[in-house]
Amino acid sequence: xxxxxxxxxxxxxxxxxxxxxxxxxxxxxxxxxxxxxxxxxxxxxxxxxxxxxxxxxxxxxxxxxxxxxxxxxxxxxxxxxxxxxxxxxxxxxxxxxxxxxxxxxxxxxxxxxx
Length: 114
Hints:
Radius of gyration: 14 Å
Distance between the termini: 21 Å
Order of helices and strands: EHEHHEEEE
Strand content: 35-45%
Number of helices: 3
Largest sheet: 6 strands, mixed
Helix content: 10-25%
Number of domains: 1
């Protein structure tokens, strides 16, 4: 399983988001918990857990609700709608934060592909 993230050139306190991820300075990417991302990240069982969760805890690791064979997830990052260069990374956690209603996608082992 993999996720494709289109990055802006700069933002969130970084002059160059791509370079910040590539260097390891930025170790997570955030996305609003919109219907689009919920449907990409969670199956039906996971969505029901998320609904239950929204009234309780402060954060939840979505990976806990994925079947074992789906737990190895890769993330791809590009700037704009180009195909290269691209960063590829292992996803180590997908946290849902109730206070911001956002997913935090945690990454490591970032490598650049031309």
